[in-house]
Design goal:
alpha+beta, elongated, 136 residues, three-stranded antiparallel β-sheet, two-stranded parallel ribbon
Length: 136
C-alpha cells in the first residue's frame, strides 16, 4: 500500500538500482496481536511485479523453519531468479548512470576560482585577496 501511495507522488524520487530479492519481495508477515486484518496490502498480488503475496500467519515459527529465512524458496510466481535479478541490477545501473551523466553539464562546475590572489566570483566580479597573509 505504501509503495502504491508513493507512485501517486509526481515527480517521484528515482527508484533505487538494486532489485528486491525474489525470495522475500512477496512475503507479508502477520505482526498483529489480535486484529488480523486482511486486505490489498497483504493479500492478492504485489503492485509492481504482480507477485502472489505469501501471507505468513506465524512469523516466529516460519523464520525458525526456514533457518532465519536463509532457506526461503522463491514463491512469487514471476519467474525471476537470482541471475535474472542480477541482470536487471546491471541494466538499471547502466540506465541510472546514463541519466545522471546526461543531466550533468560537461563544463567546469566551480562556484569560484582563485588565480594569482584574485578571486573570480560567480557573478563575474573579482576581488583581491591576500593568500599569504597570516590568520590572526
Amino acid at each position: 500500500m505504501f509503495e502504491a501511495a508513493l507512485e501517486t507522488i509526481q515527480p517521484n524520487f528515482p527508484p533505487g538500482v538494486l532489485q528486491g530479492d525474489p525470495r522475500y519481495s512477496n512475503l507479508t508477515f502477520n505482526m498483529s496481536s489480535g486484529n488480523d486484518y486482511r486486505g490489498p496490502w497483504n493479500e492478492g498480488t504485489t503492485t509492481r511485479l504482480n507477485e502472489n503475496i505469501q501471507y505468513i500467519n506465524d512469523p516466529i515459527n516460519y523464520v525458525m523453519e526456514t533457518n532465519g529465512l536463509k532457506d526461503q524458496e522463491i514463491t512469487g510466481g514471476t519467474g525471476l531468479d537470482e541471475s535474472a535479478v542480477k541482470k536487471l541490477d546491471k541494466h538499471l545501473s547502466k540506465q541510472r548512470s546514463e541519466e545522471v551523466n546526461s543531466a550533468s553539464p560537461k563544463t567546469e562546475q566551480q562556484w569560484s576560482s582563485i588565480t594569482n590572489g584574485t578571486q573570480q566570483d560567480g557573478d563575474g566580479t573579482s576581488s583581491r585577496s591576500n593568500l599569504n597573509s597570516p590568520i590572526i
